[in-house]
Amino acid sequence: MTDTLAAAELIDPDERPGRTGTARFLLGKLGGAVTSLLLVAALGFLLFRLIPGDPVSTLTKDRPTSPEQIADLRARLGVDKPLWQQFLDYVGGLARGDLGTSFGYNRPVADLIAERFWPTLLLVGTATLLAVTIGLWLGVRAAWRRGSAFDRTQTGIALTLWSVPQFWLGLLLLIATHGLFPSGGMRSPDAGPGFFAQAGTIAYHLVLPCVTLLAVLYAQYMLVMRSSLLGEMDAEYLTTARAKGLRDDLVRRRHAVPNALLPTVTLVFLQFGMVVSGTVTVETVFSWPGLGLLTYEALRVPDLPLLQGVFLVLAGSVIVMNLIAEVLYRVLDPRVRAR
């Protein structure tokens, strides 16, 4: 007993797992996320200044405008200032929570992003929920029937869909459905004002963009879940479970699948942030009024404050979801907490 206590006292308190280690882990990850967000803000400012085109020329196109009016417009938009001064104004606005005013819409960028955020969340959330359910279900069954016709067929389909560009798949769906579903927008103009009428028309317009995202997303989850479960198939604890007389479906459901889920759970959160950022092409193809379509519209001007604000939100979603994934993985996997 004395030797055990003496050995315990020799352990560095910083190396003992506990609340201190967890707090240090969380603070470190949070600090890294904040640093990444600041770097993203600076990168966004510099990146969009490299886009060819003059916003003033675009806004005054096909309009009789005098040189004095053009100079006044450049001053009001702030694009006549030196680059360093524009950057300081941008950073000062961020510190106050002000993302600026859109060149094209002449409205606060924060208001535009707030309006377009929910359609994107509806599209991405629906597609992700369906993709996770279908992908995990097919991945488990494909791995458990390794080498079967079902496994080969599903793996081939998933690999094909994973490699297809989303905008190209969306265009194919538009052609294949022959007008069966709406080709653009979020609501029908003749829909009734009631809740169920509005919900019905939104669901009807959601079908094609959701299926486009779903086809690519489910393939990723299916392949990752299959690979993860195959890694658990020959584990000794499964042999022990079978030796105890458990049925094969119980061995799969109670022992193999929970352990194989760990990489997939983290992938769900990581991909959710990336899918939010990757909806530009899908929303543009289907004219879905979300952040992706707003980004496309801003690029045509170029609307610098709007591009900076949307870029910050989209990149921030990836950073936040990555942070949640790392924290969740530490909670789910005891081996990570012990490090």
Main beta-sheet strand count, sense and barrel state = none
CATH 2nd-level architecture: Orthogonal Bundle
Shape: globular
How many separate helices?
Answer: 15
Uncertain segments are 1-17
**What is the CATH topology?**
MetI-like fold
Q: What would you give as the CATH superfamily?
A: MetI-like
Helix and strand element order: HHHHHHHHHHHHHHH
Instruction: Tell me the total number of β-strands.
Output: 0
Mean pLDDT: 82
Query: What is the count of structural domains?
Result: 1
What percent strand? under 5%
Q: CATH first level: which class? A: Mainly Alpha
What percent of the residues sit in helical stretches (DSSP H or I)? over 70%
Q: What is the CA-atom radius of gyration, in angstroms?
A: 26 Å
Distance linking N and C termini: 26 Å
Helix/strand structural class = mainly alpha
Word description of this protein:
With 339 residues, this protein is mainly α. The chain has a single domain, classed as MetI-like (MetI-like fold), CATH 1.10.3720.10. It is built from 15 helices and no strands. The chain is globular and about 85 Å long. Mean pLDDT is 82; it is low at 1-17.
Question: What structural keywords apply?
Answer:
single chain; 339 residues; mainly alpha; MetI-like fold; globular
Summary of the model, kept short:
By secondary structure, this protein is mostly helical. The chain has helices at 2-10, 19-49, 55-59, 67-77, 83-95, 109-144, 149-163, 166-177, 195-232, 236-243, 248-277, 280-285, 291-299, 304-332, 334-337. The chain has one domain (19-52, 99-337): MetI-like (MetI-like fold, Orthogonal Bundle), CATH 1.10.3720.
